[in-house]
Amino acid sequence: MGKKKKKKGIPLDPAAILKKAEKFFQKGNYLLAGKEFEKLGALTGQKNFLEKIEICDKEIKKQDAGDLLKKARKIEKGGNPGAAVKCFEDAYEVLGEDWIREKIEQLRNVTSVLDVNRAAKDAEAAGDYLKAAGLYDRASADHETENMALQKAVCLVKAEAYVEAVSAFQNIAVKEPEHLYDFGFSLTKTGRYCDCLKLWEDIPSQDESFLEQKSLVCDLLVSDLYAAFERREDPERIYKEGKYLLDAGYESSALPLVIEQSVFAWIKTLWENEEYDTIWELLRRTSSAMEPALLPLYAKVCFKRAEQSGNHGEDLSMFWLSAVYSEDFESRFSETDECEQTRKLLIDWAEDLIKSSAQPDGEIAERVLAQWSLEKEMVVEIRGLVRKRKKSRLPVLTPRLAAQTGKSTEFLALIRKNRRFFKNREDYLRAGCCYSPIRESFYHLVGGEYEKAVQTLTVGESGDEFTDYARGRVFFAHGLLCLKRGAGPPDEYPGSMVALFETAPEYEKQFIAEALDAEGTNVLQRFEEALMNIHDRRASDALAEALSLVMSRRAVEMISQKLINEKVFSMRLKKALKINPENEHARGLLRDSESNLEMMALEKALDRYKMSSACKIVVESKSDVVREAFFEFFERIVAKIEEEMSSKSERIFYLKDIYKWCAKVDDDHDILYDIEELLEELEGTNIE
Amino acid sequence: MNPYKILNIDDGAEKRDVVQAAALALRQRRYSAREVAMAQKELLHPVSSAAHQFLQVVELKPFMERVTLKYPKTPRLSDLKRLSIFDEAL
Fold this sequence. Notes:
- The complex is a heterodimer of chains A (688) and B (90).
- With 688 residues, chain A is an all-alpha fold.
- Chain A is built from 35 helices and no strands.
- Chain A is flat, with a radius of gyration of 55 Å.
- With 90 residues, chain B is mostly helical.
- Chain B has a domain at 1-59: Helix Hairpins.
- Chain A binds chain B through residues 154, 157-158, 176-178, 181-182, 185, 188-189, 191, 205, 207, 209-210, 213, 216, 219-220, 222-223, 226, 229-230, 252-254, 257-258, 260-261, 264-265, 267-268, 271, 293-294, 296-297, 300, 303, 324, 329, 332-333, 338, 341-342, 345-346, 349, and chain B through 46-48, 50-51, 54-55, 58, 60, 62-65, 67-75, 77, 80, 82-83, 85-87, 89-90.
């Protein structure tokens, strides 16, 4: 094969080279484009290609930097951030872009963390935990990594630097059992046993050594609490931490007593600081069954709370009255008079407090005040009863406190045995109600909450007098409210009312008074129905009178509103009179009504020229109005007869006819004389 | 109103102490003259004084009797060693 002949001496074509260079440039192949431009420069000696050559050089460098970035990313992914930093730095020199600078900083940080971490791990492995903690601290301070902070805390525990470990753990959300353990252990080592136990609650481990250590921490806590108790220090902590231990199932005979006494020591401080709500919470939490010795404390705390807040009047009345009637209170005085006066003053103070709380919520205050008054009456009754029955060892308690302390049954038995002690039957029943299970409903009733009173009515023993009385009172009040609103009372209403009126007739009077004061058709109708139902079961004269009157009043309302006609009106009045014939209201109205009816019938008869019928109505009617109307009718005809009729014979005929009808009703009426005169004039003779 | 607080005396104060405390309270001007006068009046009257003694003073000593405590046997705190059972997870 022959060798290709080298083209020698062929002159280069600048135009062809330029074309080629431009083509490379356009395609982004700056390396070849640059070479062609250089060739062209050398060939032509022109300097105007230098700019193009510079652009090509720059672009070539940029492409190289891009390659460096790719390489850097690859190295970073490979886990060598240190080497990646170098590539990024070289690329940044060419490109100068901000993100590359940020990336370099980030990688430098990572590198430094890794370096510190490595150093810390080395220190840890060498058992130099303090140094390791320091290194972790540096890393976590620089880069805020929680893991570093945790590592630091763990190293501090291992280095037995417990105080520092606690403060390190406190800034971290510790979740993992291993960290919870170390945190708790540090707390124990710094004397915070209870906090340690609370943390360790979240460690599920059942490892024997761990459980044993937990139990030891409990013992340490108990010893610590005992020591604090003996030094009379920090009763609040003794109470709270001791209670925590007991609730967690720690068994100790002395601990409950220590807790109880610490409560009182704490209460003393709270009282001095006027933190009455906290005392109240403590009292309610610690003693479910109230000890009598604590009664004054309860009462005073209630008073102070009411004074501070303007509320809590219900608690105040329950405890205050019981406290000032207690034996403990009376034992403070040698003189009975002084005791009575002081008691009265204290009761007045409490009452003023309840009254003053009427400002923000009048409705509640009114209810509380009504219940306070009832309880005040009750304690006076019960005190008298207890004093009379000297054998009775019962303390004087308000009904609600008696219920709370489980003494209601004893009070109820005392009331039942001493029926004669009470002034009247109602006082006896009221006292029984207050101390019986029906109390809640009765209290609502007294407080004016009638609907709640109905809702809370309990089904007592059949025939129990207190239950029946309370039911009667509740239905009475609620029913009355319904009636006044124009609504129907509950179904039990009539039956309950009959029983109540039998027991306490004053309620019948009250009911009647309300019925007679009723206004409006609807309300009158409700009262009429209720009275009718009650009257059917208990036909007393008073009820009959009231029913009859309400019926006649309602009939008037109805006819005045044109809801009934005269005939129905009259029927209703007759019905009312049947129930009470002495009902003057109905009687008078009936008279008028009958007269009206007769008038209507008369007018109808006269209009139709049914004279026989008209005469019959007038003869039978007792109404002068009807009679007068009848004669006035004929007087008008007689007066007009001359004008109306021209024929003499016709006039005579009609006058004689009129004479006949009028004489049928009253043969001595003046009209007869007038007609006679007219006839005489017309006939010249007497018609008779 | 707590007259004991206004006059800065305890509930066992005699009448003479009450008067002296009132004079001092007036000089100190922590409370108004009216409040001080009212506090003095309340404590000098036997009935209102007895009522205040009931209301303002809590007697808790009867509830704080002596308790004999038997301490549980516990190791010295320094003997309590960190367990390594959780270290594997670290």
